[in-house]
Structures are given as structure tokens and as C-alpha cells.
Write a structure and sequence with these properties.
This protein is of the alpha/beta class. It has helices spanning about 10-25, 50-55, 65-70, 130-140, 155-165, 185-200, 245-250, 295-310, 380-390, and strands spanning about 5-10, 30-35, 75, 80-85, 90-95, 100, 105, 110, 125, 145-150, 170-175, 200-205, 210-215, 220-225, 230, 235, 240, 260, 270-275, 280, 285-290, 325-330, 335-340, 350-355, 360-365, 370-375. The protein folds into 3 domains: about 5-110 and about 240-310, 3-Layer(bba) Sandwich (FAD/NAD(P)-binding domain); about 115-240, FAD/NAD(P)-binding domain (3-Layer(bba) Sandwich); about 335-390, FAD/NAD-linked reductase, C-terminal dimerisation domain (Enolase-like, domain 1, 2-Layer Sandwich).
Length: about 400
């Protein structure tokens, strides 16, 4: 079997996979395909420090070009993969070139969810997932006074903090009954809701966008309530979808993400998938998970590399099943939120510390077991909680 490894994608997961393969002794070709013109870079700062300071994109790179040259990792930048043929072990690029592989790894990440509302394509409407999104958004923000953000999740609130700090009028439209509902419990949501309001952000809960209007560019938004809000700029931060189109077209099992097993293997021989685009089985949480986080990208890539190296007889022992305690973070104003575990299915909540002092943690339990912890400005609580959750959820079985 050829030792050529082709990675579709060049984000955090792809970068870690290439690094781990080289560290593990893989000496064959490693080639990464990316539709962006940039080497692997950090995405979390896009909605935080990078948006606020707008530095050179090189400041986000995970490694300089010299590192990848030294590691003999090749990149096809700015040329998307157009098709994957698992039977022929071949990837076809959109420019017509064909790349044969011994092992293929899909690390295609996610894309911003596009809302099916009139006016969503107007100039002045933005999303934020990539460097080029910031390149387009930052100058428009400089000229904007009234900013409407659709979505009260991580990205929406992080951008709200940046924009409000700059003195602009900010309205956040959240369709649910609280912000951060998908990732935290009521106490943490209430804290961030209050904190943003205290900083002058107008948060509208239960607010559903029905249209964006404007002659040559967006100038207002309409809500299901019939209310119209003026806007110089609209940012849509309403979640993400897995980039699994290539996998679907190739006949791989997918379900809002490429389905993989605990070793990151797909349903096709010699095809793996890692990172945000995957949905994997977790014994710890008793279901399949699709995680959008740096932790998942790095750790799942390491697990996949170990499996690939074992197939090449380069790694000692058996590959270890991937079943992490997920963790996430968000920076908003002077607040750092660190989350360990997943809150889905919690039965009891305990708040430790004083939310009024902006330093506290919230513990979530199910069946008496600790399954998740939100830590606000408390790094120690976060680190301890990751160990405690790992111990208390270690024996859970997939249903």
C-alpha cells in the first residue's frame, strides 16, 4: 500500500495530524489540500483579538512556512477538493488535477449556517469563520454605527463585546429564550446576559429574523414580531454546519458530519476523518458527538495519527479509542468562560462562588455524576473539573 497521505483541509486538525504523523515516524508524502490561501491557522481569535486588533494574518499561523518545509509537508492552497473516489483511492481537485493516496483524511471543518431569509445575500451582511471574513468585516465595522448580530452563541457574544468596546450600538438577536443555551445552563446564561446588558448591548431574546432589507446594502432587519431595526451592518452568527459534502458525494455515511468510529475511521477503507466535520461515538456520554473545538481537533487528530501509524507498524501497542472530556473557552470583555464536559441531560446544578463578583463555577450532574462544569474567571476550577469529569464518566457505555 502506498504511504502517501492526503489530507483534505488545512486547519487545526489537519496541522496536528501532519505533525503527529511525522513525530511518529511516517516518512512518506503528506499533502494537505485547502480551499483557503493560508497555511494552518488559529480560528478562535477571529472573533476576539484578531478582529479587535486586525493584525497581519501571519500572526494567526500555527507554524511558519519554514516549519512545514522542514517537515516535508506539502500544501495545495486556494484549490478546493472537488471529489473523492474511495474505490480508486483518488482525490480530484477543482482545477482538474488528480491526487492518488494510500490513506485519505477528511479534515474539512465547518461552514457558517446560512439562514433562509430574504436579503441574506445583500452587501453589508457578514459571517465570521475565516480570515477572509475578518478581512471583509473589519473595514465595514469601521464605518458602521449600528450593528445587528444574529445569534447569541460564542461568536455572536464575542463579537458583541469587541464591537461594543469600540463604542458602537449593538443589538443581539437570539431566537432562544436565553443566550448560550446550546452550551451552558441557565445560571451561566443569566450572568452573560446581564454582563452584556450592563455594557450597553441590547439583547433581544425569542427574536426571530424574518428579513434583511436595503437598496444597495443592508440597512434594516425585520423580526417576526413585526418590529424593524435599523442596521449599518448585520453579522449572522447562527451556528455552523459540518462540511461533509465531499463525504456524502463519495458515499460515506454522514449525519450532520462524517460518521467515524472511535479510531476516526470512516465507512470506507483507508479513509479517516477528524475534527469539527466528524461525528464520533462517545462511551462517556452515551451517544455520538460532533464537537467544534480546538481540543477536539487536536486530540482526535492525534488519535487518528496513532491508528494510521499502527497500520504502518510504526506505533507500538494498540491504538487508543478516542473518547474525550470536551472543553471549550470564550473571552468576552474581561471575562474568561471555560467549559469542561457537556451539559446535555443534566439533572441538578450547583453554583459555587459569587456570580456578582464575576468569579464562580457551575457544576452539572446526572445520576449523581459530574458531567460538566462552567468556570467563569476561575482557571483552577476548570482544570480540576476536567479530571473529576473524566473519573466520574469513565464507565458510561454507548446506548
Amino acid at each position: 500500500m502506498s504511504e502517501s497521505i492526503v489530507i483534505v483541509g488545512a486547519g487545526q486538525a489537519a496541522a496536528q495530524l501532519a505533525i503527529s504523523l511525522r513525530q511518529g515516524g511516517h516518512a512518506g508524502i503528506i499533502r494537505a489540500i485547502c480551499d483557503e490561501p493560508y497555511l494552518p491557522y488559529q480560528r478562535p481569535p477571529l472573533s476576539k483579538k484578531f478582529l479587535a486588533e486586525y493584525r497581519d494574518p501571519d500572526s494567526l499561523f500555527l507554524r511558519p512556512a519554514t516549519f512545514w518545509n522542514d517537515q516535508n509537508v506539502e500544501f495545495e492552497l486556494g484549490v478546493p477538493a472537488g471529489a473523492v473516489d474511495p474505490r480508486q483511492h483518488r482525490v480530484t481537485l477543482t482545477d482538474g488535477r488528480e491526487l492518488d493516496y494510500g490513506t485519505l483524511v477528511l479534515a474539512t471543518g465547518t461552514s457558517a449556517r446560512v439562514l433562509p431569509v430574504p436579503g441574506i445575500e445583500l452587501p453589508g451582511v457578514f459571517s465570521l469563520r475565516r480570515i477572509d471574513d475578518v478581512v471583509a468585516l473589519r473595514p465595514a465595522l469601521n464605518d458602521a454605527h449600528r450593528v445587528v448580530i444574529v445569534g447569541g452563541g460564542y461568536i455572536g457574544l464575542e463579537v458583541a463585546a469587541v464591537v461594543r468596546t469600540e463604542g458602537r450600538i449593538v443589538t443581539v438577536l437570539e431566537a432562544e429564550d436565553r443566550v448560550l443555551k446550546r452550551v451552558t445552563g441557565p445560571a451561566t446564561s443569566a450572568f452573560f446576559d446581564r454582563y452584556h446588558r450592563e455594557h450597553g448591548v441590547d439583547i433581544r431574546l425569542g427574536a426571530r429574523l424574518t428579513a434583511i432589507e436595503g437598496d444597495t446594502r443592508a440597512s434594516s432587519v425585520w423580526l417576526a414580531s413585526g418590529e424593524m431595526l435599523p442596521a449599518d451592518l448585520v453579522l449572522v452568527a447562527a451556528g455552523a454546519r459540518a462540511n461533509d459534502d465531499l463525504a456524502v458525494a463519495a458515499g460515506l455515511p454522514c449525519q450532520d458530519g462524517v460518521l467515524v468510529d472511535e479510531l476516526a475511521r470512516t465507512g470506507a477503507p483507508d479513509v479517516f476523518a477528524v475534527g469539527d466535520c466528524t461525528r464520533f461515538p462517545s462511551r462517556r456520554y452515551g451517544r455520538r458527538l460532533r464537537l467544534e473545538s480546538v481540543q477536539n481537533a487536536i486530540d482526535q487528530a492525534k488519535a487518528a495519527a496513532t491508528t494510521i501509524l499502527a497500520r504502518e507498524a510504526r506505533a507500538p501497542g494498540k491504538p487508543q479509542p478516542y473518547d474525550p472530556v470536551p472543553w471549550f473557552w470564550s473571552d468576552q470583555y474581561d471575562i474568561k468562560l471555560q467549559i469542561a464536559g457537556l451539559t446535555d441531560g443534566y439533572e441538578t446544578i450547583d453554583t459555587i462562588g459569587d456570580p456578582a463578583a464575576a468569579r464562580f463555577s457551575v457544576e452539572y450532574r446526572s445520576g449523581g455524576r459530574l458531567i460538566a462544569v462552567d468556570a467563569v474567571n476561575d482557571a483552577r476550577a476548570h482544570m480540576l473539573s476536567r479530571r473529576r469529569i473524566a473519573e466520574e464518566t469513565a464507565t458510561e457505555a454507548v446506548s
